[in-house]
Amino acid sequence: MSDRPTPSPDAMIVLDGVSKRYPGQDKAVVSDLSMEIRRGEFVVLVGPSGCGKTTTLRMINRLVEPTAGRILIDGRDVTHVDGDELRRGIGYVIQQIGLLPHLTIADNIALVPKMLGVAKSERRARALELLELVGLDPALHADRHPRQLSGGQQQRVGVARALASDPPVMLMDEPFGAVDPIAREKLQTEFLRLQERIRKTIVMVTHDMDEALRLGDRIAIFDSGSRLAQFDTPLEILSNPADDFVRDFVGSGAPVRRLSLLTVADVLGTAPSTAAGAGRAIEVDPGDSVHTALEQVLAAGAEGIEVAVPEEGSRFLDLGTLLTAASQPAKVLT
Amino acid sequence: MSTAAMTETSRSAAGTERKSRTWVLPSVVLALLGTLWLYVGSLDLDSVEARSLAGDVVLGALWQHIQLVVVSTVLTVAVGVPLGVALTRPGIRRAGAIVLAAANASQAVPSIGVLVLLAMIFGVGFWMAVVALVLYALLPVLRNTMVGIRQVDPALIDAGRGMGMSTREVLLTIELPLAVPVMLAGIRVALILNVGVATLAAFTNAGGLGSVISSGIALDRMPVLIVGSALTMALALTVDWLAGLAERALRPRGI
């Protein structure tokens, strides 16, 4: 393992040839897996059930002890440090949420600070602050018991609890899996907004490719047997799937899904200029996704988009040009 | 929001309902004692009866009975709860089945048999009776402790371990508090069992209300027998009522 390249300085979590084999089983759940997750990055592990993604996640905080390999967090080898102490410094959110029913919401959030010896009044203040952060009114919710909250509210508390000691790393195991679809989308959007503010290094497990595409900065797609089929940005996975397994797993509709990940600015470079003023246009922002732009054009019955480009003034793209440009492989675009 | 409010309303409604029901049992006990008082007062007691039903004799027996019940229950809990907790720990979980089987068997044996056997081996007296009572009442405490801890949602334990609790912290902050309602139910059963079985302690010379009953039988005096039995009943009901109150007070909020 010493012949492996040394991790880059901005690596937050490094898995170095990590394996997990349970005694009495000849096939390893995870075998010789190496990954590098950068500081502040949101990485989603996705794959069919039994591919070892949850085991991989649980090895990062050593709820599952790896049988081989090393794990580095923030440059420190944590493979053999005290597991309980390690976990106090890592946020952990699970699908079942796991709020303690006999404690109030505030006390649930303050569990880790309490273990770390933070004074009572300080813990309380922190809990209220975190409730505010995840969008729950502290005055209304702090002294309730978990049972009095809806599933979505409970998972917000679950996130708040994981953030309580301000850990640099958060591990999430299907955090939005138990919430109904409408609340899930809302939670996902809010969570993305929250992540923009707190910039944690997040590793999340899901079996839902749409969720992975929506949330991840990078997505690790596992094949059965913990083979890391592809580990790349959502756009790259949709544009250039590494192999048939990834293509199958992403499923149909990849070209259309790409449209929400491509920005108008991305496609401008490859799109031939059309004469401006050739038709009715909708003005869009270069930062808008192609999907949003299309939606507006179709809704208004317009013929194309008008984009303001800093050096050339504004450019007009008709629908056909926009779509052709958006269907180019992303390699050219980036 | 509205669901939460509804839950609260329905919960407080259930609370008042239960509160009103808590006064049923003591009223029954008081009615029972009042009837007993009137019945005994209406009788023309002969000298044997008068001697057996003298205030200090009956109250002494009652006090002995209470002592038997309290001491044996405290010891039962002191043995049963730690044992039950220990048997849910990963290393010796397997032994749990064996110990439960033994506890089951000890309860299947008729209590009078246990008492008499122990008396034959270890002699008679208060402490011997206590040992027999503890053996007899151990099962519900032990079983409910184990069941109470095992029924805790594994996801809660995973969440606790995941946030860095040691196994000991998981036991103290998650498993035990959540097992309390089931454990208390077991302790309550043990208490009630002990009130009943303690009447048999009279056969091993440990006193208690059983001595009033047995002298009623031996002397063929109906009123003595009735007083002994009725007081045992009243004690059992009172203990059950008190245990119910304690159960409600000690149950963690939110579950």
Description:
The complex is a heterodimer of chains A (334) and B (255). Chain A has 16 helices and 13 strands. Helix content of chain A is 38%, strand content 23%. In chain A, the strands form three sheets. Chain A has a six-stranded mixed β-sheet, with helices on both faces. A four-stranded antiparallel β-sheet of chain A has the order 2-1-4-5, covered by helices on one side. In chain A, strands 11-12-13 form a three-stranded mixed β-sheet. With 334 residues, chain A is α/β, with parallel strands linked by helices. Chain B has two domains: 1-42; 47-250, MetI-like fold (Orthogonal Bundle), CATH 1.10.3720.10. With 255 residues, chain B is mainly α. Residues 1-15 of chain B have low confidence and may be disordered. The two termini of chain B are 19 Å apart. Chain B is built from eleven helices and no strands. In chain B, α4 (55-86) packs antiparallel against α9. Chain A binds chain B through residues 61, 63, 84-90, 92, 94, 96-104, 111-112, 115, 144-150, 161-162, 171, and chain B through 3-4, 7-8, 153, 155-156, 158-166, 169, 173-174, 177-178, 252-255. Chain B: The chain crosses the membrane at residues 21-42, 62-85, 97-118, 124-142, 170-203, 223-243. Chain B: This is ABC transporter permease. Chain B: Keywords: Membrane, Transmembrane, Transmembrane helix, Transport. Chain B: It is a multi-pass membrane protein. Chain B: It is found in: Cell membrane; Membrane.
Q: Strand content of the residues of chain A, in percent?
A: 15-25%
Low-confidence stretches of chain A: none
DSSP helix fraction of chain B:
over 70%
Total separate domains of chain B? 2
- Order of strands in the sheet with the most strands of chain A? 6-7-8-3-9-10
Question: Which CATH first-tier class of the largest domain in chain B would you pick?
Answer: Mainly Alpha
Second CATH tier, the architecture of the largest domain in chain B: Orthogonal Bundle
Helix and strand sequence of chain A: EEEHEEHEHHHHHEHEHEEHHHHEHEEHH
Biggest sheet architecture of chain A: 6 strands, mixed
Shape of chain B: elongated
Distance between the termini of chain B: 19 Å
* Strand segment count of chain A: 13
